[in-house]
Amino acid sequence: MIENNNQIRDSFGSKFGVIAAAAGSAVGLGNIWRFPLVTTQNGGGAFLLLYIGFVILIGIPVMLSEFSIGRRAQLNAFGSFKKLAPGTPWFLVGSLGIITAFAILAFYSTVAGWTLEYFAQAITGKLSHVNDMQKNFADFSSQTYRPLMWQFIIMLVTSVVVFAGIKKGIEKFTKILMPVLAVLILFVAFRSVTLEGAMEGVKYLFVPNWSAVSFKTVLMALGQAAFSLSIGMGTLITYGSYIQKDNHLLRTSTQVAITDTSIAILASLMVIPAIFAFSPGSDVASLSPGPGLVFEVLPDVFKSMPGGSFFSVLFFFLLSVAALTSTISVLEVVVAYLKEELKLSRGMATLIAAVSISVLGVLATLSFGVMKDFTIFEMTVFDLLNYASANIMLTFGALLIVIFVGWRMGKSDFINEISNQGSLKSNLFKGVYFIIRYIAPVAIGIIAIATFFIQGIV
Ligand code: PFF
């Protein structure tokens, strides 16, 4: 245990706890409402191979970099850079992380709130009586109070878990819910692939179609990998600071990445084959990732599926759980910062973080209703937060993090940290460092610049 502010610093109590919490952060709406469609629309197996390549080449090294920064410094994302590179502007990377956390949680809590509404609609049976799913979603999301109420509930539950602390809050919550989530996804995916006609969907998902791959696809694969693994903004620096000194960080990073990728693939098997089985005419290529898929197409699919109302309850429950285990990790970034840098109590830090993020969150939620015509750079507040954080801030964050570890922290400190002061030996350590120092910055750099020019707002 390490002393901090004269208190014993809270930490994860077990290896499984670390994996549950970090995989809980990684597995979220990104896996379920984005990955399946992005994959099918961008070359199926071809996209999948690119994606897996990015996870191995960039995702795991960045995750390991973040864990090692946090565990070495024993501080929040901002404080870690200040401590490891005192008197330099590197703390700005930490500040970028805190701002990104703000932006992500503001729009993510809107969507997380919608999942609760749909869970409620599924459990009360309302969803199975809706005739026009598009209208149902538009009617709900354009309201003022109801979406705000769900967003508020999400922020409240998130705050309660974060307030309870690392071991007694985040670890306990994710240790119970992540296995439940995995079992439910397996169960629903099994139902989906065993439906008649489902195999067409499986084929569409996995058979590589290289002609659909363009440079933009490559950008999307990296953006999706970063968002899905929760890298590039300090979530994993923050969690890393709670990991015990004897944890094998490379192994943990690999396990988290494998879990996240497996769940994304299972989520695709849950979603795409079911759509093919029940709406063979529906053109998967024309669906847009996000609300359309999860809140319009899937409820229709559940309506036609035998036992569909039961599966829709399970589905929206698992979606809410996936969202919540991610929201807590983002809130913790801001709470740890306020607590340690401004020396606030955990309760006060949680309150201030949750209230200030919610103010921005309200604007995101209302982007679908009364504020739908309020645009900045031709985007609603929701779209702007989503675009700026997922496409720009995370990519730049990841770039700066690998440059920090590769060029500032340096080989001996990094290897010392990931080998637990030399007690672990592996030939991989030097290889990962090489990737972090040379390969990852070049690859992420090219993509960061290209993202800016290709889809950029300037
Ligand atoms: N990884 C989450 C998802 O795929 O939905 C989203 C996310 C959570 C992004 C936490 C970033 C983060 F720090």
Strands across the major sheet, in which order? Answer: 1-2
Tell me the structural class.
Answer: mainly alpha
Question: Which whole number gives the mean pLDDT?
Answer: 92
**Helicity, as a percent range:** over 70%
Q: Report the top-level CATH class.
A: Mainly Alpha
Total beta strand runs: 2
If you consult CATH, what is the topology? Answer: Hydantoin permease
Count of helix runs: 18
Q: N- to C-terminal separation?
A: 48 Å
Counting structural domains, the number is 1
Give the second-level CATH assignment, the architecture.
Orthogonal Bundle
One letter per element, helices H and strands E, the order comes to EEHHHHHHHHHHHHHHHHHH
Q: Ranges with pLDDT <50 over ≥5 residues?
A: 1-6
The gyration radius over C-alpha positions equals: 21 Å
Q: Which kinds of small molecule does this entry bind, naming each only once?
A: 4-fluoro-L-phenylalanine
How large a portion of the residues is in β-strands, by DSSP E? under 5%
- Biggest sheet record: 2 strands, antiparallel
Describe the global form.
globular
Structure description:
There is one protein chain. The protein has 18 helices and two strands. By secondary structure, it is mostly helical. It has a two-stranded antiparallel ribbon. A hairpin with a 2-residue loop joins strand 1 and strand 2. Helix 2 crosses helix 12 and helix 5 packs across helix 7. 55% of the residues are buried. The site of 4-fluoro-L-phenylalanine has 15 residues, from helix 1, helix 2, helix 10 and helix 14.
